[in-house]
Amino acid sequence: MTDTKRGITAEDLYQICYPSEPQLSPDGTKAVFVETKMDELRQYQSHIYLYSLEDNSKTALTSGPFRDSFPRWSPDGSKLCFVSNRSGKAQLWHLDVNETEFKQITNGPNGISSPVWSPDGRSIAFAAFLRTGQTLTEGTEELTEEATPKSITVDKMKYKSDDSGFVYEKNKQVAVVNIETGSVTQLTEGTYDHAVGSWSPDGKWLAITANRSVNPDIQHEIDIYLVPVEGGEWKKITNSDGTYAMPTFSKDGKKLAFIGSVADQHLYATMKKIWVAELDAGTVQCLTADWDVHVGDATIGDVRSPGHPNPGAVWTTDGQGMYVIASEKGSSGIYLVHLDGSVTKVVGGERNVYGFTFDNEKNSLVMAVSDSLTPGDLFHVDLNTETEKRLTDVNGELFQEIRLSTPEEIWYEGAEGWNIQGWILKPVGFQEGNTYPAILQIHGGPHSMYGHTFFHEFQLLAAQGYVVVYTNPRGSYGYGERFVQACCGDYGGNDYKDLMHAVDYVCQFDYVDETRLGVAGGSYGGFMTNWIIGQGNRFKAAVTDRSICNWISFYGVSDIGYYFSAEEIQANPFENPEKMWHHSPLRLVANMETPLLIMHGERDYRCPIEQAEQLYMTLRHRGKAPVSFIRFPGANHEMSRSGDPEQRVLRLQYTVDWFNQYV
Ligand SMILES: CSCC[C@H](NC=O)C(=O)N[C@@H](CC(C)C)C(=O)N[C@@H](Cc1ccccc1)C(=O)O
User: Fold this and answer.
1) How far apart are CA 305 and CA 473, in angstroms?
2) Mean pLDDT over each residue of the chain, to the nearest integer
3) What's the distance, Cα to Cα, between the start and end of the chain in Å?
4) Closest-CA residue to 519 (of 558, 485, 565, 473)
5) Where are the transmembrane segments (predicted)?
6) Burial 494-528 (b: 16+ CB within 10 A, else e)
7) CATH 2.120.10.30 domain position(s) in the chain
8) Ligand 1 centroid distance, CA of 637 (Å)
9) What is the tens place of the pLDDT at every residue in 134-167?
10) What Rg do the C-alpha atoms of the chain give, in angstroms?
């Protein structure tokens, strides 16, 4: 039989869509979710869909050139709210399930996010960015483009963020809107950022999170607070000793569950845990102290951005535990954490669960899942019968014509004899007896994890005839706390060796042509790519994206530079510049002779473009190897995952062309 299927292309990205944020209706008969795709103009659209679990029909509730998100059912299931930019900025909208007309509820000057219904269904809590002195009711005036100021006075260290741009005079505040009258009550104020958690079952309290420390520039702790909705004194639940998020009340209102970690030594290089506060007793306890697994979805892919809204801890009806997503050895699944600290895996498998919604009455759930061959779909799981049913196949038609490569899992010996997990993607159309060039791909973070999820870039390289090798060196999530912390203070040490051992491992296979190797990575993966080509000429070509080459300048220009390098490099430029320089690939530039493609977003505030500029200039000046520098105007650090679609496709095309030319 002839194979009529083709390999994936960069432009296929324009067709790939994914569902997210499934939300079951209170009666469990239907679910709403968000579907994100690109339109004919190559712009993102996301719409709210309704899936009936009774007749398996799927109906679009919203449409048009807009970004709709955060669909949430009212407690009685008669209404839905969602966030949409259909009137300009992201505002809260409301829909009666039996009607087709939407009503805009908020009109905040800078948009809103994260709506949560009150238990009586009369109000919705939400978060909004506000300048000092601005109110949520001043409305449309500010809906026009803000004029660029003639000057900006910077008087704090956290004044810019890769995500939100210049945040020097805006803070995130929490408010409540009455959906009948539209009246808005702002619950928080001041120069602190707050986030909405959940309502107490009696509707009197709102659990929120905030860093309200004296000096948030150097005190990074995020606490949980209970705020009385009708006014009055707040209750502080945590003790300013960690970063805590997503508090949810138990059904009886006596406990709060939340996700977080203690910040004594590590802010980034540590795994998230489940915590429970007993509100009457005033105690806070870590439930998963002995469970060496990261709570949350740590999987890195290139279809969605990391940190997509996930449900946090979802209490069981009997209050004896909670369901969470956790990440282990390249997979993320759903786990039940019991109050006694024991943990049961509820949904496993070699895949990436990135969202779920639970029906306690029926003991069933709907989850959003990606795997190596699927960017994302929804599944229904009946836990009574342990049966699973696929609800969507959003890329079915497109993928029918495409031949994908299925990754093979490997475990190999890294530095110090450590066991390291990775995957090999053979070229599409692989034939025994032939040899192929291979590309080593390195993930960012470094605290994230490659795994059983879809990676368009890897499939594209496999379709172009490359073996793709991707592994989780020390520093990655998925293998316990010691593994996560093992790269700190040792960037370019044993993490580098773990990666080189992967290359040694795959070069044993007859089908790998070890004279034709390439290496690529973004962010920390870009740092490591630069480091690798500074060690010698093992690779024929390299592609470094949004990378770091100089920790000394990174310290002062990245939005997180001054505290990220303190923890990860374990140095700063004024006390130990030698160590900062020691771990900087720019130090090794005299050794760099590998043809290098440098790509960087011009509005990247995480790893600012000056990093790419330094590397480019020094390499060009030396003139020992081809180097090309592609700048992406307006692009931030997330460009390869959620940036401008045409820039994403260009980035992939430049990558393929570079490897095709030099490997
Ligand atoms: C959990 S580690 C902290 C990662 C940090 N994120 C946040 O505050 C981050 O942005 N890391 C960069 C490198 C660093 C600036 C030197 C990075 O490698 N980013 C990754 C994406 C990523 C973001 C958050 C968590 C994991 C990975 C990338 O751009 O691919």
Assistant:
1) 21
2) 95
3) 33
4) 473
5) none
6) bbbbbbbbbbebbbeeebbeeebbbbbbbbbbbbb
7) 66-191
8) 9
9) 888 766 444 444 567 889 899 999 999 998 888 7
10) 25
Residues 216 and 37: their CA atoms lie apart, in Å, by 37
CA-nearest residue for atom 16, ligand 1, is: 524
Q: Just give the CATH number of 399-549+584-662.
A: 3.40.50.1820
Q: Indicate whether residue 524 lines ligand 1 (CB < 6 A).
A: yes
448 touches ligand 1 (CB under 6 Å): yes
The torsion angles phi and psi of 396, rounded to 5 degrees, stand at -55, -50
Tell me, in angstroms, the distance from the centre of ligand 1 to residue 638's CA. Answer: 10
CA 607 to ligand 1 center in whole angstroms: 10
Q: For ligand 1, atom 14, name the residue with the nearest CA.
A: 524
Using the mean position of ligand 1's atoms as its centre, give its distance from the Cα of residue 565 in Å: 12
* Annotated catalytic residue, options 250, 523, 553, 565: 523
Q: Judge if ipTM > 0.90.
A: yes
Question: Which SS3 state, helix, strand or coil, does residue 630 take?
Answer: strand
**Phi/psi at 47 (nearest 5 deg)?**
-130, 160
b (16+ CB within 10 A) / e for 36-53: bebeeeeebbbbbbbbeb
CB atoms within 10 A of CB 190: 11
Fold for the domain defined by 66-191: Neuraminidase (2.120.10)
Does the Cβ of 207 fall within 6 Å of ligand 1? no
Q: What angle do CA 96, 99, 103 make, to 5 degrees?
A: 55
Cα 545 to ligand 1 centre (Å): 13
Ligand 1, atom 25, residue with closest C-alpha: 445
Please, which residues have CB within 8 angstroms of residue 493's CB and are 6 or more apart in sequence?
415, 487
Ranges for all domains in the chain classified under CATH 3.40.50.1820: 399-549+584-662
Does the active-site annotation cover 637?
A: yes
Backbone angles phi, psi at 654, to 5 degrees: -60, -40
Mutation test residue for ligand 1: of 564, 600, 609, 640, the one with most atoms within 8 Å of CB: 564
523 is catalytic: yes
Concatenating the DSSP letter of every residue in 432-462 gives TT--EEEEEEE-SSSS-B--SS--HHHHHHH
Point out the catalytic residue in the list 194, 447, 637, 640: 637
* Alpha carbon of residue 319 to chain centroid: 29
Distance CA 183, CA 516 (A): 65
Q: What secondary structure, in 3-state letters, does 195-251 show?
A: EEEEECCCCCEEEEEECCCCCCCCCCCEEEEEEECCCCCCEECCCCCEEEEEEEECC
pLDDT digits (tens, 9 = 90+) for 549-594: 999 999 999 999 999 999 999 999 999 999 999 999 999 999 999 9
Q: For residue 31, give the 3-state DSSP assignment.
A: strand
What is the dihedral sign for C-alpha 606, 374, 449, 322? positive
